[in-house]
């Protein structure tokens, strides 16, 4: 039986003295991290955490975050890392769904305490020290396998939070399959500037443990003007990112280049990396390999394009991971021939267990086959060519990917309608300009755009606050009175808005 | 126009959550007013151009863009 904890136990025995987690101030070796995780797990058990319990953690990236997650796992619990920008409303909904036995909050989010329900609640800055010095408790025998390892909360189609369930076996399989393509090495230094509440940030911890690499725990706000120098100072060799992070890096390096001879691997996820950006990155970092990828939290990773395949398959997001299968399906459910566009289906041991306590949503997106395998209905449109290369076309559902986050326009529209000034709202993404656009009709006179946008900033996470506001006399609607997103898109494209 | 006034005028277009005409204090949190890490790159370029300075690399950190006062310190 594989268990997440095995990754650390094995790394600590194979690479005891190698650095694992790097912070701004210090570093922890694999051996030290292994001991600390056992202590923290003992502390959690003495607080009453039992196998199968949920442990929620709300914090910005910091060196304690991977340790606390691994400790919850070592205690047999199911952890979930929530965005440090989570709104109190979304947090309360998640607490109700999860019924956690333990919640760990960063000091900065102490305001969430009233929403914690009956769970034992700790503040990391106050309680971490004591937790890490707990007297050793008997740690459970890792169960692992198809058991639930952790939950990643994303927006569901209605905008309500939805917990993607991943098992220990899912993580073990996909970590190995991804490393077969990306091939991190034990002398690598991974720079993580993506939030760990975002799954690609969290998985870097697993890749490090599997390969013995070191991981710098950075924060998203470092991925601005100081990024190139941080990469140089920490001798980062591997940089996982999203398109906006790479756009910033291209801008800085074109303007005021910093020598980064050690940077050797850039991998993109979260959203499509434009081919022009791939080419610019190759020019700016001739010694580095660029890996475009495609994935969904529900299976973590669908495909990876190798650098040597880039020229012959420009624009493709690569082939399916080894041991998995991807095909395009017609609306009637038939498997389409090579090159034809349909809804992409993913099958393999990486497809997760479904959505936490949401059987209806699970039934829409997962197919449980009689032989025990699972198929993920991606909601994305694309084609698979004769060589197995996947070409991504569009999202068939109306979910939006922006700044690396997947979001439901409904959540943004509902938030807008809670503002006094707004009578109706429709949200779409302007893909060409990478902007989130909100169309509204008003209840009264026209307020300043910033009044509405700052009102939304109080109700939504930062990435979900629109970049542009368009006031309309009337919101276009479909025959059944839904927001007509096609009509909104047409307004953008013909230049009316 | 003082350097402070010039800076505040220059900052406004980067702050999509700040209403037009609303006061912008020197200790306002720019992140809360809509400045993100990608935009702070554009802000940095604008600052160098408008103030005719070259900001030394070692002074450029995430917290250099926390408030207008911090940004003013960069160009002074």
Protein described:
The complex is a heterodimer of chains A (497) and B (76). With 497 residues, chain A is an alpha/beta fold. Chain A has two domains: 4-311, ANL, N-terminal domain (Rossmann fold, 3-Layer(aba) Sandwich), CATH 3.40.50; 408-493, ANL, C-terminal domain (GMP Synthetase, Chain A, domain 3), CATH 3.30.300.30. Helices cover 30% and strands 25% of the residues of chain A. Chain A has 14 helices and 26 strands. In chain A, the strands form seven sheets. In chain A, strands 11-12-13-14-15 form a five-stranded mixed β-sheet, with helices on both faces. In chain A, helix 1 (4-14) packs parallel to helix 7 and helix 6 packs across helix 7 (199-211). The longest helix of chain A is centred in the first third of the chain and has 17 residues, at 30-46. The model of chain A has no long low-confidence stretch (mean pLDDT 92). Chain B is mainly α. Chain B has a single domain (3-15, 26-75), classed as Non-ribosomal Peptide Synthetase Peptidyl Carrier Protein, Chain A. Chain B has helices at residues 3-11, 37-51, 68-75. In chain B, helix 1 packs across helix 3 (68-75). Chain B starts with a helix and ends with a helix. The A-B interface holds A 219-227, 229, 244, 247-248, 251-252, 255-256, 258, 447-451, 453-454, 457, 462, 465, 467 and B 15-22, 31-34, 36-38, 40-42, 44-45, 57-58, 60-62, 64-65.
């Amino acid at each position: 039986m594989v268990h997440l904890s095995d990754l650390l136990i094995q790394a600590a025995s194979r690479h005891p003295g190698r650095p694992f987690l790097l912070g701004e101030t210090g570093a922890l070796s694999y051996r030290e991290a292994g001991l600390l995780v056992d202590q923290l797990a003992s502390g959690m058990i003495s607080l009453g955490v039992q196998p199968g319990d949920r442990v929620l953690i709300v914090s910005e990236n910091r060196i304690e975050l991977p340790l606390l997650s691994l400790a919850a796992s070592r205690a047999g619990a199911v952890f979930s890392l929530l965005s440090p920008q989570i709104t109190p409303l979304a947090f309360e909904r998640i607490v109700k769904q999860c019924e956690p036995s333990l919640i760990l909050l960063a000091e900065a989010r102490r305001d969430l305490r009233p929403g914690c329900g009956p769970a034992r609640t700790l503040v990391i800055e106050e309680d971490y020290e004591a937790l890490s010095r707990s007297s050793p408790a008997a740690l459970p025998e890792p169960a692992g396998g198809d058991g639930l390892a952790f939950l990643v909360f994303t927006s569901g189609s209605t905008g309500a939070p939805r917990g993607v369930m991943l098992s220990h076996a899912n993580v073990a399989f996909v970590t190995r399959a991804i490393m077969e393509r990306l091939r991190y090495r034990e002398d690598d230094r991974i720079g993580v500037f993506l939030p760990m509440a975002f799954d690609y940030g969290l998985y870097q911890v697993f890749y490090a443990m599997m390969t013995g690499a070191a991981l710098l725990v950075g924060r998203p706000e470092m991925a601005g003007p100081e990024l190139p120098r941080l990469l140089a100072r920490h001798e980062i060799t591997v940089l996982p990112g999203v398109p906006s992070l790479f756009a910033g890096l291209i801008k800085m390096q074109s303007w005021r280049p910093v020598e980064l001879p050690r940077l050797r691997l850039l991998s993109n996820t979260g959203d499509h990396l434009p081919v022009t950006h791939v080419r610019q990155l190759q020019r700016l970092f001739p010694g580095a390999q660029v890996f475009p990828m495609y994935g969904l939290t529900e299976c973590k990773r669908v495909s990876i394009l190798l650098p040597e395949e880039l020229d012959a398959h420009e624009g493709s997001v690569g082939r399916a991971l080894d041991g998995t299968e991807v095909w395009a399906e017609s609306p009637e459910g038939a498997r389409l021939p090579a090159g034809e566009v349909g809804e992409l289906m993913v099958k393999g041991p990486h497809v997760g267990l479904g959505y936490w306590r949401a059987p209806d949503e699970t039934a829409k997106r997962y197919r449980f086959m009689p032989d025990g395998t699972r198929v993920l209905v991606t909601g994305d449109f694309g084609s698979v060519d004769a060589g197995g290369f996947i070409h991504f076309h569009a999202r068939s559902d109306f979910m939006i990917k922006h700044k690396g986050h997947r979001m439901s326009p409904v959540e943004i529209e509902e938030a807008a309608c809670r503002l006094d000034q707004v009578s109706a709202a429709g949200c779409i993404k302007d893909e060409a300009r990478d902007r989130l656009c909100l169309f509204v009709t008003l209840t009264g006179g026209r307020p300043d755009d910033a009044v509405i946008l700052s009102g939304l900033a109080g109700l939504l996470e930062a990435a979900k606050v629109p970049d542009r506001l368009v006031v309309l006399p009337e919101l276009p609607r479909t025959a059944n009175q839904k927001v007509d997103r096609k009509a909104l898109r047409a307004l953008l494209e013909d230049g009316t808005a | 126009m003082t350097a402070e006034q010039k800076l505040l005028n220059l900052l406004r277009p980067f702050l999509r959550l700040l209403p037009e005409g609303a006061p912008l204090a020197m200790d306002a949190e720019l992140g809360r007013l809509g400045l993100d890490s990608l935009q702070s790159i554009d802000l940095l370029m604008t600052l160098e151009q408008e103030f005719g300075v070259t900001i030394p690399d070692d002074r450029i950190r995430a917290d250099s863009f926390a408030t207008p006062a911090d940004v003013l310190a960069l160009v002074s």
